[in-house]
C-alpha cells in the first residue's frame, strides 16, 4: 500500500535568482525627428546688367569665398571707367583754373584794383570746381565698382547649385537668378518639441535650452536614417519665441558640425536631445518580459510568491534597461531562472546582484 501524499512531502519551490534594482543617476535623452538645413542660403544675382560671357564653375561644385562664378561682358563697364577718368581730369583742370583765378584776384581786391563782387564770383567758381571734382571722383568709383561687379564671385564658402543661365544670356541687375549657394559647415537641424518637453528642458538643472547671446545651448546628438549610432554632436542655438497654435509644439534648432560635408540639407535625421541627469532604476534587459498588456518584470514577495510589475521602460545604459516607472527600489526582481517562475506561483529566492553588464551575476 502506497504511503499518503503528506508522507511523501510537497514538491519543493523552484529556485530563482533575485536582486534589487540598481539605482543610479543616468543621462536622459529625448529623441526627435529633425530636418537638416543649410546654415546659410544665398541667391546669387547680378549687381549690374549685362551679357554673360563665361561660366566658371561646375554645377554642384564646392567653392570658396571669392571664387569666380560668372563673368559679364566687361567692355561697356571699361568704357564707363575711361569716361569717368576723363571727366575727373576735366574737373581737376577746372579746379586748378579756379584756384589760380582766386590767387590772382586776391591782391587786386586788397589794393582796390578789382571790385569785391568779382572776388565773390571767383570764390564761388572755386567752390563749384571743388564740388565738381568730388562728383567726378565719386562717378569714377561707381564706374570702377560696376566693372568689378561684372565678375560675379562667391560671397562665402559652400556648395553651389546648377547654373540658371548660360553664356550669351542677358541678365538684369538684381533680378535674374544665376544660381544658389548653401553653407554646409556647420548645418542646422530643426525639430519640434511639445509643451511638456519644453517645460522640462527649460527647468532642467543643466539649463541652457534657450541660450543667450554668445552662450552654448543644450547638447544634441544626431544620426542619419541608415546609421545605428549617434555619431554627430552639436548644440541648440535657437528656440522659437512662441508655440505653434495648431500643433502645440515649439520649434528648436541645433548647430551640428559637418566638416566632411556628409550631412545634406533637406534630409531627415534622428536627433537626441540632452534632458538632464535623473535618478533611475536599472535591471537587466533579459529580466523584462512581455505580454498583451505590455512590458513587465517579475518580482518575489517576502512569502516567496511571484508578482508581476508592469513597467515603463527607458533606454539601455551599460547593458541595463532603465525602468521609468512601475518598480520600487526595494522590489526583488527575478534576474535568473525566469523560465521556472510563473505569476502567482511560489519560488525559492536566491540572492544575486545586478551590475553594469548585460546580464546579472547569479551563480
UniProtKB/TrEMBL annotation:
InterPro entries: MdtA-like_b-barrel, MdtA-like_BSH, MdtA-like_C, MdtA-like_HH, RND_pump_MFP. Residues 41-178 form the Multidrug resistance protein MdtA-like barrel-sandwich hybrid domain. One of its GO terms (molecular function) is transmembrane transporter activity. It is found in: Cell envelope. Residues 1-34, 343-363 are annotated as: Disordered. Keywords: Coiled coil. Pfam families: Beta-barrel_RND, BSH_RND, HH_MFP_RND, RND-MFP_C. This is Efflux RND transporter periplasmic adaptor subunit. The lineage of its organism: Bacteria, Pseudomonadati, Pseudomonadota, Alphaproteobacteria, Acetobacterales.
